[in-house]
Every structure is written in structure tokens, then in C-alpha cells.
């Protein structure tokens, strides 16, 4: 199988697996205990906290380990809603992940107001609209993702933060897709809260982190034994935390060793080959502000659901440009927010690369997309011929 669905999840890096295995085998003590084995585990957790903090340019004290991006997002929204009840408004972008959208619905159900800022056709947040929407004394939180999971479009976070802070609002960013792929420094782009997930950066599923700026107050979503500096109750997922720390350390290395340019070259080669054979191909998203890992493209009249079946048979794993829930395809709200028609959304594929992909895989996958497209055209032509006779 050629795996091109890294925005859904990434393979665990072998070095990450090696780092976590001792904490499944011999270092299994509960870190809240007082004996030597437990102290060793606590030290390892604090090392992982330092590694994650370094990835974000943060202080280790500002990092709280969670079960993943969804928990981190819910924790931020719940905390802000509880601590600033006099400010009822939450502002989100129209292209947010379901974790933000569903949490925003809860905010609204609890009596708050949710305002949605539109995006331009290239997927970038409309800053002029945001400026008009954020209101001093009313807007508690602006929650906008750093990089989109479907298109890879990167948000102008520095401008968003400046605008929100000028109005006295806090800023949260869903950085699940951005962390480990682009340079993030919370000192120069001073978001108040940031959420990330391990399985999007070559760590296992079920572990993530929440950055809470030392400037911001925070009320925990999960209370219990006082773990994580009383910001997240519950016995820590020690192997997962160790894995996330190692993944963060490796991500820093790969951000500076030319690997980012190598993956971008694979993605660009993949797109070039398809476009050369299928010139009707249209790429979604801002060409200059897009993750180097992500290719979201439309092949008009090529049903994405059918293409996925053919590509799967050809050994290519990728996604459709629609959200899939329990096997049912629904039009992508992200693409619709960018002005794409429901038909274009239904003809969109998303291929997302990771650092283990090769040039040969990118080229093989591109040729498979081309071949499957031709097969679908032939099948559609045959069906039309049968109908007409």
C-alpha cells in the first residue's frame, strides 16, 4: 500500500516506538507514587513536556498533556466560557474541524453566541470580516485553526492574534495539522491557547497536548487527582506522552534538515504529473499558503467515492474531499465555504504526504489517479451508451 492519508493519521516513527516501549515493559509505575520507579517515570514525563514546549517555543510549564486535539479544544472552550461569562461571544472560521464546530454548538447551547467569519475562495480567513466581527467587551475567544485538515491552507495567525488581542479577546488555535509541519513560535505569534495531537506527527493515537499561555487563566475540563499541575485530572498516559515528546523532538530536527522541501517536491511532482495528463484538474487552496504535505484537488465529473474504490484496489490510500461518517459521504463544508459547488466537492480527492513517502510512491500514485480516472470515464461512457440504446 502507498499511504497518502497523513492528514488523517501518520505512521508511528520507529524511533518514537523505541522511546515508548520501555514505559510499556518495565517503567510502568504510576507517576503519582513516591518510590524510585515512579520518580523515574515523572522525570520522563517532564522531559517530554520540555520537548513539546521546544516545538512551540513555549515554557514547559505551559504544556498540559491530554488525550488529543479534541479534548484540548473542548477544554479551552469550556474554560473560557466558565471564566468569562460576561463575554458571551465565540468567533470561529467557517472551515473549522468538526471538533471546533461541535464544541461551538455546545457553547451556543449553554447560552453563548457563536459568530462565524468567512474565508476567501482560496481558503484564507477574511481578515477584514474578522476585524468587523470581533467586539471589545463581547468577544471572549477567537478560535481559528492554524492549518486546514482538508486543504492544507495556512491561516494568517499573526494578524488574527493582533486583531483579537486589540479587542481584548483571547485566541485559541487548533494546530493539529500545523504542529511539526511548519515553524510555530508562540512568542512571536502569541496565541493564548493551542491544541495539538500526537497521531498527526508520527506518535500514536490517544495522546495530545494543550498549550496554555502563562498570561491566560484556565479552568480544567477534567478534575481528579490533581495531575498535570491540576490542569487535567487522571493518571497520565505515560507511554503516549513519552512518544509525543520524542515525536516533537524529531519534528524539530526535520523542520530544519531539508525534509520539508523534499516532501513539498514530492507533492508538487504528484500534482504536476496528474495535471499534465488531466489538465482539467483544479487544486483547492491558496498556492502560497498551503501545507507542503497536502494536495486537495478536483477532477470534474470524476466521482470521488468511485475513485476511492478504484485507488484502494490499486493499493493507494487517500481520502475524498468530503467528510466521511460511518460510511456516508457528505459535501465538505470546507470546500463549500470556499465557494466550491457540491458537485466539485463530490469530485475532490485529498492526498496527504508524510516524511516516509518516496518519489517513486508519489509518481506511482499519480499514475494510479490518472489510470483510475480513465477507467471511470470509460465506465461512464459505457453506461451512457447503454442508456441511450
List the helices and strands and how they pair.
Elements: E1 2-3, H1 14-20, H2 22-25, H3 36-56, E2 63-66, H4 69-83, E3 89-93, H5 98-109, E4 113-117, H6 127-133, E5 139-143, H7 157-166, E6 170-174, E7 193-197, E8 208-212, H8 227-230, H9 238-256, H10 259-277, E9 282-283, E10 294-298, H11 304-313, E11 316-317, E12 319-320, E13 323-325, E14 328-330, H12 333-337, H13 342-346, E15 348-352, H14 359-388
Parallel strand pairs: 1-11, 3-4, 3-5, 5-6, 6-7
Antiparallel strand pairs: 2-8, 7-8, 9-10, 10-15, 12-15, 13-14
Helix pairs in contact: 1-9, 3-9, 4-5, 10-14, 11-14
Provide a descriptive summary of the structure in words.
The chain has 389 residues and is α/β, with parallel strands linked by helices. It is 43% helix and 15% strand. It contains 14 helices and 15 strands. The strands form four sheets. The chain has a seven-stranded mixed beta sheet with strand order 2-8-7-6-5-3-4, with helices on both faces. β13 (323-325) and β14 (328-330) form a beta hairpin. α11 packs across α14. The radius of gyration is 22 Å and the shape is globular. The protein starts with a strand and ends with a helix. 48% of the residues are buried. Mean pLDDT is 94; it is low at 382-389.
Amino acid at each position: 500500500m502507498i499511504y497518502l492519508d497523513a492528514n488523517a493519521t501518520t505512521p508511528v516513527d520507529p524511533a518514537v516506538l523505541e522511546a515508548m516501549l520501555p514505559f510499556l515493559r518495565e517503567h510502568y509505575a504510576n507517576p503519582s507514587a513516591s518510590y524510585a520507579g515512579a520518580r523515574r517515570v515523572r522525570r520522563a514525563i517532564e522531559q517530554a513536556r520540555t520537548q513539546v514546549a521546544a516545538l512551540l517555543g513555549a515554557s514547559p510549564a505551559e504544556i498540559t498533556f491530554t488525550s488529543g486535539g479534541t479534548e484540548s479544544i473542548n477544554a479551552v472552550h469550556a474554560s473560557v466560557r466558565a471564566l468569562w461569562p460576561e463575554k458571551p461571544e465565540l468567533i470561529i472560521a467557517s472551515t473549522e474541524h468538526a471538533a471546533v464546530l461541535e464544541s461551538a454548538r455546545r457553547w451556543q447551547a449553554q447560552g453563548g453566541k457563536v459568530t462565524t467569519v468567512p474565508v476567501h475562495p482560496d481558503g484564507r480567513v477574511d481578515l477584514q470580516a474578522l476585524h468587523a466581527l470581533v467586539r471589545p467587551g463581547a468577544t471572549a475567544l477567537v478560535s481559528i485553526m492554524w492549518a486546514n485538515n482538508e486543504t492544507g491552507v495556512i491561516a494568517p495567525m499573526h494578524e488574527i492574534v493582533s486583531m483579537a488581542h486589540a479587542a481584548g479577546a483571547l485566541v485559541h488555535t487548533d494546530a493539529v495539522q500545523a504542529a511539526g509541519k511548519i515553524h510555530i513560535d508562540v512568542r512571536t505569534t502569541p496565541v493564548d491557547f493551542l491544541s495539538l495531537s500526537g497521531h498527526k506527527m508520527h506518535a500514536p493515537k490517544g495522546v495530545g497536548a494543550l498549550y496554555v499561555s502563562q498570561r491566560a487563566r484556565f479552568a480544567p475540563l477534567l478534575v481528579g487527582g490533581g495531575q498535570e499541575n491540576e490542569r487535567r485530572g487522571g493518571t497520565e498516559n505515560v507511554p503516549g506522552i513519552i512518544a509525543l515528546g520524542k515525536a516533537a523532538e524529531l519534528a524539530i530536527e526535520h523542520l530544519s534538515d531539508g525534509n520539508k522541501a523534499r516532501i513539498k517536491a514530492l507533492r508538487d511532482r504528484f500534482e504536476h504529473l496528474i495535471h499534465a495528463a488531466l489538465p482539467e484538474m483544479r487544486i483547492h487552496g491558496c498556492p502560497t499558503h498551503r501545507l507542503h504535505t497536502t494536495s486537495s484537488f478536483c477532477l470534474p465529473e470524476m466521482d470521488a467515492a468511485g475513485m476511492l474504490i478504484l485507488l484502494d484496489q490499486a493499493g493507494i490510500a487517500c481520502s475524498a474531499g468530503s467528510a466521511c461518517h460511518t460510511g456516508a459521504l457528505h459535501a465538505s463544508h470546507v470546500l463549500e465555504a470556499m465557494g466550491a459547488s457540491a458537485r466539485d466537492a463530490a469530485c475532490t480527492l485529498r492526498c496527504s504526504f508524510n516524511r516516509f513517502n518516496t518519489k517513486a510512491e508519489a509518481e506511482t500514485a499519480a499514475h494510479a489517479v490518472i489510470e483510475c480516472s480513465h477507467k471511470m470515464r470509460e465506465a461512464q461512457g459505457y453506461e451512457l451508451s447503454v442508456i441511450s440504446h
